[in-house]
Specification:
single chain, about 425 residues, two-stranded antiparallel ribbon
Length: about 425
């Protein structure tokens, strides 16, 4: 696949549901992943949640269902207020292919925070449910991604163009093929994949908690009409052009470029819920722990049956990414996890291009919240309070890991590996 399209397809993996079963797939799990309506899906999910405390298979499938209903909560909130994707890899969660809404509801800053809270809390529920599945549970559920979906337009139906396969195709701009002639997108999800999904729930929770830790109302009021051009935001009547001049890509028109610059400039956020910023660090550390558990389980597998994330012993290109995993990539990824953990625990310091002899203590960045100013963090003054002496990571540390991932590129593998 082309590099950017490959990256987008891999990024969507953070939006994919996973599933589980013991020796046999529960009937409710089949109903969950084959549902054509939200009502049928929710009924099956409720059955699985009720059975989860006594049945690992039901817990696994319920955790997966809770994960993709979290995505549905986000998509529904975006659709309700007339979200228009900026089509930029710099805003990954804002790339959901939400259909146009001809009659959007007005949106306030408080309502947008509420959407993020609901999304984050459902992810927490998913992580807890997946975490209740025993490590030695016998998991093996075959899922066709053209049959699993979420309701993007709030009409109560889960249509073929709302399937995970269709969403992936939209995000990858055609590099993920769907249709009669496309490669099969059926995978057998096993116990290792549960750690993978749980880790992604933690990753997305950390992103939401970082936003919610701050008052970002100035960014919302001054630039979010770029994302919600007809939701009655404060500057809509002044700055939103006629539909014919809007353009779909963030860099396809002067007004979108201007609003993106405004957004960056306005990221100067006071910390209003500092415990959430501390929680974001804990969630990232939990993601790292789960990724290690994932690879431990993957490398113990002896089968090679439609693997979502194969180990080096499971040969063959993945039908979604077109990539094959070797021992070099696994070792490099484990080294990446150690590097990330050292940064989050303050054992290693993040370098800054303007500072010599000191680095940024990322543990203190999260645990000692101060106003977050994006531009001043890049230029230097914003990170000055977190500078200290110690072991500073070097460009060679990063380059050595990058080289192990070859032509596929570190980011593509990272978004796939979690």
């Amino acid at each position: 696949m082309r590099p950017i399209a490959s990256l987008l397809a891999s990024a969507l993996m953070m939006l994919l549901p996973l599933s589980s079963a013991g020796a046999a797939m529960p009937e409710a799990a089949t109903a969950l992943f084959e549902a054509k309506t939200v009502a049928a899906r929710d009924s099956a999910l409720a059955t699985l949640e009720a059975a989860a405390p006594r049945d690992p298979a039901s817990a696994y499938a319920a955790g997966a269902g809770e994960f993709f209903t979290a995505l549905e909560l986000l998509a529904s909130g975006l659709h309700r207020h007339g979200f228009e994707s900026p089509q930029s890899f710099m805003l990954p969660l804002m790339q959901l292919p939400v259909p146009a809404n001809p009659d959007p509801e007005p949106l306030t800053y408080e309502q947008f925070r509420a959407i993020l809270v609901a999304f984050r809390d459902r992810l927490e529920k998913s992580a807890a449910t997946l975490g209740s599945v025993p490590a030695d549970a016998d998991i093996g559920m075959v899922i066709d991604l053209t049959h699993v979906g979420i309701d993007l337009n709030e009409d109560g139906a889960i249509a073929p163009d709302e399937s995970m396969a269709a969403i992936m195709a939209a995000l990858s701009r055609g590099s993920v093929a769907v249709g009669a002639d496309a490669p099969a997108l059926t995978f057998r999800f096993d116990r290792a994949d549960g750690y993978w999904l749980q880790g992604y729930a933690e990753f997305l929770m950390a992103q939401a908690d970082f936003w919610l830790a701050h008052d970002f109302s100035s960014t919302f009021n001054g630039s979010f009409h770029m994302l919600f051009p007809r939701a009655k935001l404060p500057l809509q009547d002044i700055l939103v052009p006629p539909p014919s001049e809007m353009g779909s890509n963030i860099f396809s028109s002067e007004w979108r470029i201007a609003d993106f610059i405004s957004m960056v400039h306005l990221i100067n956020w006071p910390a209003v819920e500092p415990e959430r910023r501390k929680a974001a660090r804990r969630e990232l550390l939990e993601m790292i722990r789960l990724s290690r558990e994932d690879w431990k389980a993957i490398r113990a597998e002896t089968d090679n049956d439609r693997e979502w994330l194969p180990g080096p012993q499971q040969k063959g290109e993945n039908p979604l990414t077109g990539l094959e995993v070797g021992e070099e990539q696994v070792q490099a990824w484990l080294a990446t996890l150690t590097m990330a953990e050292d940064l989050l625990e303050g054992r290693a310091l993040l370098p800054h291009f303007r500072v010599t002899g000191k680095g940024i203590n990322m543990k203190r960045f999260f645990d000692e919240p101060k106003p977050f100013d994006l531009v001043l963090s890049i230029t230097g003054p914003g990170i000055a309070p977190y500078l200290e002496s110690g072991r500073i990571l070097t460009s060679e540390d990063f380059d050595q890991i990058q080289r192990e991932f070859g032509g596929g590129g570190f980011l593509t593998f990272a978004l796939w590996f979690n």
